[in-house]
Each structure stands twice: as C-alpha cells, then as structure tokens.
C-alpha cells in the first residue's frame, strides 16, 4: 500500500486508570505500597481484594490526589494526578464511601446530588437534567425532595452513588458497597451497578459480590499486587486465598456461580 494513502490509525482511548511503580510511606515510616502497577481499561469492572492493612485505602487515596507524595505515577484517562490537573481529576474519580452519611449533608436528596455539579459551575436546566439523570440511574428520582435522613440505609447509599454519578466520572470507586445492606438492598444495588456505563473499581471483602459484579479481580497484599486475573479463577484457588487471608462464606463454591459477562 502507498504509505501516502495509508489510512490514519484510529486514536486509542487511554485507560481509565494507569498506576505505575506506585510506592508510598506514611510520615511515621510505615511503608504501605511497594511499587504497584495496575491498568484498568475504559468500562471495566474490577474488584480490589486483600486483607486489612494490605494498602487498599492508600492506593485508592492516590487516585484522586488525596495522597500524592509517593514515588511512581498515577494517570486517569491519560491525565496525570498532579496539582495542575487536580480539579479535573477529582471530577473524574468519584469515590463512594462506605458510610453514605459521610457524603450526604444537604436538606434534600436533590440538593445533595446537585451540590458537586453546581460547585463546578453547572446551573439552570443543565443542572436539573444532570441531577434527574443521576437519580434515575440509581432508581431514586421519586425521592428528590426527601431529606436524606428520612431514607433507609440502602436508599442513602444509592443517593451517595448518585452524588458521584452527577459529576459524570471516568471511574467510580466503591468502598465496601454491600456492607450493612439487607438482602433486598444488596440485590437492588447490584442491579444498578451492573447497568452503569462507567469504569468501576470495587474495594470489598464481600467475595461473592465481587464475583457477581466484577469479571476481573486484583489482590493487593503487603503493598504489592499479588494476583490479577478473572475473579472466578482467583476465588477458586484455595492456596492463593489462604496465603492472602481471603475467605469465602461457608459452603460458597465460586466454580458453581456463573461469572458476569463483560
């Protein structure tokens, strides 16, 4: 083929998250991360597993620049997590905390969901459309005028997810999303998360939930990535699980549970 007339290669979309050589020590000298490498493509759903003290929270806090002093690099959708890009990074990385009350502080659900986009300059009908869409995504549109403290715990968690979705993030980080939910709320949240068109990183000790929602899982242990593979394969490896203090519920067989499709 004539190189002059060769087709231009299609531009490649950068991954939602790329972590390279990330190391971090706290001021007291505790080394939490020892050279973590992790890439998550656009639209992937990945579970971040590991025992307490493995470095999971430290890793997550690097994704939106709450921690930045470590060695190595973190990029989100091709943007480096640094001071020059911090406002955009914090829009693109949405963290849903384990306790929804850490995120809900306005008089009504609508005001909570509108807070982030309004602070970023969105107003008028564009803001209302953004809020409405975020609440519809989590099945909470009819509760827009309710005070958050009048909602059930499961409903508050869904509203907390909506506050992050309203910012149209690149990656949604969920900290123990199934904790303290009754079975019905657990199922409702799973259905919502499965349908979201966004990259998901789910930090969880709920291994069946990880298997149900995340085709891929990463085990972080002692500050390093110890395994990165299909979730079902990791959970079905008893030696790997035992080595990193991960335990399935009694009688749960990951090989008998269908893994989610991408």
Main structural class: alpha/beta
Question: Residue ranges: pLDDT <50 for 5 or more in a row?
Answer: none
CATH architecture of one domain: 3-Layer(aba) Sandwich
Work out the helix count.
9
CATH fold field value of one domain: Rossmann fold
What's the CATH superfamily of one domain, by name? P-loop containing nucleotide triphosphate hydrolases
- Identify the strand order in the major beta sheet: 6-7-8-3-9-10
Q: Which CATH class of one domain is shown?
A: Alpha Beta
How many angstroms does the end-to-end distance come to?
36 Å
Strand coverage percent: 15-25%
Mean pLDDT: 91
Counted beta strands: 10
The string of secondary-structure elements, in order, is EEEHEEHEHHHEHEHEEHH
Radius of gyration: 19 Å
Based on CA inertia axes, which overall geometry fits?
A: globular
Please give the share of residues in helix: 25-40%
Largest sheet entry: 6 strands, mixed
Short description:
The protein has 262 residues and is an alpha/beta fold. It is 32% helix and 23% strand. It has a domain at 16-98 and 160-245: P-loop containing nucleotide triphosphate hydrolases (Rossmann fold), CATH 3.40.50.300.
Protein described:
With 262 residues, the chain is α/β, with parallel strands linked by helices. The chain has a domain at 16-98 and 160-245: P-loop containing nucleotide triphosphate hydrolases (Rossmann fold, 3-Layer(aba) Sandwich). Helix content is 32%, strand content 23%. It has helices spanning 56-63, 86-92, 109-119, 124-137, 153-165, 183-195, 207-213, 231-235, 238-243, and strands at residues 17-25, 31-40, 45-49, 71-76, 79-80, 93-96, 171-175, 199-203, 216-221, 224-230. A six-stranded mixed sheet has the order 6-7-8-3-9-10, sandwiched between helices. Strands 2-1-4-5 form a four-stranded antiparallel sheet, covered by helices on one side. Helix 3 crosses helix 4 and helix 4 packs across helix 5. The radius of gyration is 19 Å and the shape is globular. The mean pLDDT is 91.
């Amino acid at each position: 083929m004539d190189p002059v007339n060769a087709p231009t290669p299609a531009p490649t979309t950068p991954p939602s998250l790329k972590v390279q050589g990330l190391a971090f020590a706290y001021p007291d000298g505790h080394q939490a991360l020892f050279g973590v490498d992790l890439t998550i493509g656009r639209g992937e759903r990945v579970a971040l597993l590991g025992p307490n003290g493995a470095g999971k929270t430290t890793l997550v806090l690097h994704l939106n620049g709450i921690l930045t002093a470590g060695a190595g690099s973190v990029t989100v959708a091709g943007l480096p997590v640094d001071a020059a890009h911090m406002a955009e990074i914090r829009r693109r990385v949405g963290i849903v905390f384990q306790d929804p009350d850490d995120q809900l502080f306005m008089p009504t659900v609508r005001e909570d969901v509108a807070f982030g986009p309004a602070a970023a300059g969105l107003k008028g009908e564009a803001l209302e459309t953004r809020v409405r869409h975020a609440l519809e995504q989590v099945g909470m549109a009819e509760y827009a005028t309710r005070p958050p403290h009048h909602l059930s715990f499961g409903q508050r968690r869904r509203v907390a997810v909506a506050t992050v979705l309203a910012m149209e993030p690149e990656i949604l980080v969920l900290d123990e999303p199934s904790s303290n939910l009754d079975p019905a709320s657990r199922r409702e949240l799973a259905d919502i998360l499965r349908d979201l068109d966004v990259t998901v990183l789910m930090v969880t000790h709920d291994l069946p939930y990880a298997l149900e929602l995340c085709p891929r899982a990463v085990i972080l242990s002692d500050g390093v990535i110890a395994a990165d593979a299909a979730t079902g394969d990791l959970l079905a490896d008893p030696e790997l699980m035992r080595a990193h203090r991960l335990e399935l519920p009694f009688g749960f067989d990951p090989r008998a549970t269908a893994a989610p499709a991408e």
